[in-house]
Amino acid sequence: MMRPLLFLLVVATILAGSLHASDRPNILVILTDDQGWGDLSLNGNDNLETPHIDSLARDGAAFDRFYVCPVCSPTRAEFLTGRYHPRSGVYSTSAGGERMDLDERTIAEVFRGAGYATAAFGKWHNGMQYPYHPNGRGFDEFYGFCSGHWGDYFSPQLEHNGELVEGEGFLVDDLTSRAMTYMAEQKAAGKPFFVYLPYNTPHSPMQVPDEWWEKFENKELAQRHRDPKKEDLGHTRAALAMCENIDWNVGRLLARLDELDIADDTVVLYFCDNGPNGWRWNGGMKGRKGNTDEGGVRSPLLVRWPGKVPAGTTIPQIAAAVDLLPTLAEMAGVSLESPKPLDGVSLAPLLTDPGNAAADWPNRMIFSHWRNRVSVRTQRFRLDHEGKLFDIPADPGQDRDVTADHPDIARTLQAAVDDWKRDVLAGYDEDDRPFVIGHPDVPWTQVPARDGTAHGNIERSNKFPNCSFFRNWTSIDDKITWEVEVGEAGDYEVEIWYACPAADVGSTIELSLGDSRLSGKITEAHDPPLRGMEHDRVERVESYVKDFRPMTLGTIHLEKGADTLTLKALEKPGTQVMEFRLMMLRRAE
After folding, report:
1. What distance, in Å, lies between the first and last C-alpha atoms of the chain?
2. Topology alike, domains 26-358 and 435-587
3. What homologous superfamily does CATH list for 26-358?
């Protein structure tokens, strides 16, 4: 017979679990890639139609002035941590500089700690090798890719919880379907979910299914960039087609929430990661992706939570990506225990009680940074990275420097920028973090060409590393190296993903780390053509891709600690050794 005190404890535990599941809302965060503020019909762009995205503002709230970073990985880091991206070690978009420091606590860890099921579907872009991998940053489920961009959007090679898999159909559609299935599974399990859906479009390469492209291929565009001579109409048309595909997928998500009867219990949040990736209509603002001007960092922020966020609310107060972690935590009633102070503030009062909250809302400054260029925004003014002051409501194109009209404000903002640089930027791009391989918590490690350093004649397939491979390996003096740290000593099976024409088969390659060595011979030809161009709507700037083949090299013993991982050739009977895409290490049983 159960003792009374124990019985009460069990009942209390059951009730607490029930309340935990029923009283806390689900969270669905949709983040698009390179979609500007102006790429929505909601914001006045008549070149396209985005009714499903627009409905989030109609049925919830829209922030008029919401700011992100000028490029991808910094915005993701600020959303995930609630802190300005240089604080977390993010200073680049590739080759390790996109990784968040491991002592940062992410939004997924916060929600998982509160009993949520956590999942990410899409472009991660904040570290590939565990524990920088999304599975190491609080996400139980991950499906997508970890690089900054991907070379093919039609059934490409992706990851599922670290394992290499093949996608199914157009990537944004595939990611959406995965998220919809996951939400249904969690509804059936009676568990609240935190789903992060970072789409990969309209980032280039500009690929989109025919259904969406045909509408825009020859479309006359009524609204153009403020300097039409800069605009590439083909690129703009492709971007708009990709945005309409995103809207269709947002409609699928909202419909699934209705089908599951959880729409009223789900916070849906939509934003973008930077300004547009081309010179196209953007409300007349100055700047695009990569710039710290208004047009480079202004993003839509739409938040829907029926019954809690008043429908049709427009919020004029400035806000930023660093605010989203504390906002969602407060809205969900989740305890926010951060090991480091946050730069963001909770926007929940503005969302749930906008009339009363606005009366006491404090003035603030929001800083934008990229490549040592810093600008700062107040409710009215922006001081740009050159120290010029602009009255943004009156001059969105930043055409007139008003420093002479407001000298005290200009001095105050410049002093704030100087302080911010001293506080946040000191040493931010000094990076001695090795790539982690063989972490004890996972059996696998992916080591891509993206993170390697080529020596000798070897060259990248493109200057942008994210989805590149190594080619022109023509000498046994050539090599590829990675600075790594082995997390756990042991034996590791090694798989090389390669390409090699028949005439060059026979090279012997060696992988070494410290005193450990493993060699093997390329015995089978695999010479696939470059591809990707068959799906591109306009010529890309990134690398084309190939269908590389895996080859088992063997098993190597690795000792724990930091050293240089080296891949080189011992023999080369042909004109080249091979082309190299990636290496997979798996702990041997």
Report:
1. 45
2. no
3. Alkaline Phosphatase, subunit A (3.40.720.10)
Please report, for the chain, the start and end positions of each structural domain, with discontinuous segments joined by +. 26-358, 369-425, 435-587
Instruction: Output the 3-class SS for 61-96.
Output: EEEEEEECCCCHHHHHHHHHHCCCHHHHCCCCCCCC
Task: Please name which of 176, 161, 332 lies closest in space to residue 255, comparing C-alpha atoms.
Answer: 176
- What are the φ and ψ backbone dihedral angles of 318, each rounded to 5 degrees? -70, 150
Tokens linked to 134? 């999304």
Single out the residue of 318, 401, 306 nearest to residue 55, CA to CA.
Answer: 306
Judge whether 138 and 111 are in contact, CB under 8 Å. yes
Instruction: Give the H or E element holding residue 582.
Output: strand 579-587
Tokens, residue 215:
């509408």
pLDDT band at 355 (very low <50, low <70, confident <90, very high): confident
pLDDT, position 22: 53
Average pLDDT, integer, range 89-108: 94
The third-level CATH classification (topology) of the domain covering 435-587 is Jelly Rolls (2.60.120)
Token match 């916070």: residue?
Answer: 267
Query: Can you tell me whether residue 193 is helix, strand or coil?
Result: strand
**Residue 125: pLDDT above 50?**
yes
pTM score: 0.95
Quote the CA–CA distance of 29 and 255 in Å, as a whole number: 16
Angle of the 51-59 helix axis to the 233-259 helix axis, nearest 10: 50
Token pair 């002035």 is found at 65
Cβ atoms < 10 Å from Cβ of 378 = 17
Residue 147's CB is within 10 A of a number of other CB atoms, namely: 23
Q: For the chain, what percentages of helix, strand and coil (3-state, to nearest 5) are there?
A: 30, 30, 45
> pLDDT category, 23, cuts 50, 70, 90?
confident
Higher per-residue pLDDT: 22 or 350: 350
**Where do the H-state alpha helices sit in 448-583?**
none
CB atoms within 10 A of CB 515: 8
Q: Is 508 helix (H, G, I), strand (E, B) or coil?
A: strand
